[in-house]
Design a protein that fits this description.
Blueprint: E1 7-11, H1 15-26, E2 30-34, E3 58-61, H2 68-78, H3 82-89, E4 91-92, E5 97-100, H4 102-114, E6 119-122, E7 134-137, H5 145-155, E8 160-166, E9 169-171, E10 181-182, H6 192-195, E11 198-203, H7 205-217, H8 238-244, E12 271-277, E13 284-287, H9 296-303, E14 314-316, E15 319-325, H10 328-331, E16 337-338, E17 341-346, H11 356-374, H12 387-398, H13 427-449
Parallel strand pairs: 1-2, 1-7, 2-6, 7-17
Antiparallel strand pairs: 3-5, 4-5, 8-15, 9-13, 9-14, 10-11, 11-12, 12-13, 16-17
Helix pairs in contact: 1-11, 2-11, 2-13, 3-4
The structure holds flavin-adenine dinucleotide.
Length: 450
């Protein structure tokens, strides 16, 4: 392979690699995306598309005033982000969340990159660390084995592998709508479609207790000793939540608050299982928050005890997956470059951020930082008062290196507001203060990058 000195090479065309390529190509760089699919597959991807969503079809909250993920959406939109603008085109009703029709979404991302005059796509697996040229490694949680080994050899730090789990998807036609009803929690949403975006299955106390018993007794995929210690807390399998306490699910994904059973308004459900639309046609629904490592047979048996799902047909059952990420606080500089080989940047989930949005955001940033470097500009650090800056500051130094674990964006990563009082009563004002400040600072930073 001939490496052009003025070309940016990106390994991996997922959320991060696609966004990085878009940003760099729009700034005038020549970009080559190296994507191993469809030649080499992963167990979670189904297509050869760039920007494929491997599990949930949601980019989570779109609230840019009160939510840190929503703020990250806003910041990416301001920066002409490909992932956000494509998500907008394929948006599905989801009661305040930004959910999309996954296949048309990934097809659009692929088409936009393929037709860009500055981008070419090479469908190959990169198995070694590149020695020259300018590179971004954005190979994600399922980085291929040989490249992972090469990274390990270079960093001599252990690439950490751990498991979380994917939620099952049910065919809508197999759900008993005499028992279930459509409603978003607290009727949240601007339109009737948004206010009825979720499909709810009610449980009384006996049904809930029986469900917990079934979960606890179900046959699970066994973990090797120590593996579960690496769980990412936001993505715990439901049976692990149930093991932590019989009430945990009732205060988590099965909480009954903000919902009234349209089929039986007088009876307050003791717990509620929520499903959310998974495609534009409305034929598929995923069970929200029901990641699991139960064996397939056990999953079917347990989920069919949920009222309205007694005849459920599953388009996909839950599963476990691996996550590869590097110890960014020790390995990367504040420009996301590998300290030992500064011609290589890392971006996306492999840097230790968690989720589609955070990964795309780190791709956006890595792309822009590469552009600045290759065009001889010096950019100031991204202010840590922005969602983008808070995240990158965390992974490249803010986090404790010894106990470094994947991180979602959250207001806990932001510096305190001057003169703001802490405490629950002022939370709404505080969050608004964070997001107002972030927006100003992000716009000021962006203005310096052009
Ligand atoms: C099973 C599973 C379920 C998940 N569920 C969710 C979820 O519900 N919500 C959520 O927000 N996040 C979820 N995640 C995390 C999600 O995958 C990431 O947050 C996001 O996709 C990461 O973006 P990325 O660009 O870093 O990696 P990816 O989107 O995975 O992209 C990496 C790309 O690199 C390619 N690649 C890998 N190795 C090589 C190589 N050696 N050479 C060339 N190409 C290579 C891969 O084929 C892939 O296309 C899940 C992850 C997994 C594995």
């Amino acid at each position: 392979m001939t490496i052009m000195k003025n070309t940016l090479n990106i390994i991996g065309g997922g959320m991060a690699g696609s966004e990085a390529a878009w940003q760099a190509a729009n700034a005038g760089l020549r970009v080559v995306i190296h994507e191993m699919r469809p030649k080499v597959e992963t167990f979670a991807h189904r297509t050869g598309n760039l920007g494929e969503m491997v599990c949930s079809n949601s980019f989570r909250s779109d609230d840019h005033e009160q939510n840190a993920v929503g703020l990250l959406h806003w910041e990416m939109r301001q920066a002409n982000g490909l992932i956000m603008q494509t998500a907008e085109k394929h948006r599905l009703p989801a009661g305040g969340a930004l959910a999309v029709d996954r296949d048309p979404f990934a097809e659009s991302v692929t088409a936009a990159l393929k037709s860009h005059p500055n981008i070419s796509i090479s469908y190959d697996e990169i198995t070694n660390l590149p020695t020259d040229g300018n590179w971004i490694i954005a190979t994600g949680p399922l980085t291929s084995g040989s490249l992972a080994k090469a990274i390990q050899a270079e960093t001599s730090a252990e690439a950490l592998a751990f498991f979380d789990a994917i939620a099952p998807i049910v065919y809508h036609e197999s759900i008993n709508m005499d028992v279930a009803w459509m409603q978003s929690r607290y009727d949240k949403g601007e339109t009737e479609e948004e206010r009825t975006a979720y499909l709810n299955c009610p449980m009384n106390k006996d049904q809930y207790e029986a469900f917990i018993d079934a979960l606890l007794a179900a046959e699970k995929t066994e973990f090797k000793e120590g593996e579960t210690a690496g769980y990412f807390d936001g993505c715990l399998p439901i049976e692990v939540m149930a093991e932590r306490g019989r009430e945990t699910l009732r205060f988590g994904p099965m909480k009954p608050v903000g919902l009234t059973n349209a089929n039986d308004p007088e009876n307050k459900p003791y717990a509620v299982v929520q499903l959310r639309r998974d495609n534009a046609l409305g034929t598929l629904y995923n069970i929200v928050g029901f990641q699991t490592k139960m064996k397939y047979g056990a999953q079917k048996a347990v989920f069919k005890t949920i009222p309205a799902l007694e005849n459920a047909e599953f388009a996909r059952l839950g599963g476990i997956h691996r996550n590869t990420f590097i110890n960014s606080p020790t390995l990367l500089d504040e420009q996301m470059r590998l300290r030992s080989r500064p011609n290589i940047r890392f971006a996306g989930q492999i840097t230790g951020v968690e989720g589609y949005v955070e990964s795309a955001a780190m791709g956006l940033l890595a792309g822009r930082l590469a552009v600045a470097e290759l065009t001889g500009k010096t950019l100031p650090a991204v202010p840590n008062t922005t969602a983008m800056g808070a995240l990158v500051t965390h992974i490249t130094g803010g986090a404790e290196a010894k106990t470094f674990q994947p991180m979602n964006v959250n207001f806990g990563l932001f510096p305190a507001l001057e003169g703001a009082k802490n405490g629950r009563r002022n939370r709404k004002d505080r969050y608004k203060g964070y997001t107002d400040r972030a927006k100003l600072d992000w716009q000021a930073w962006l203005a310096q990058t052009v």
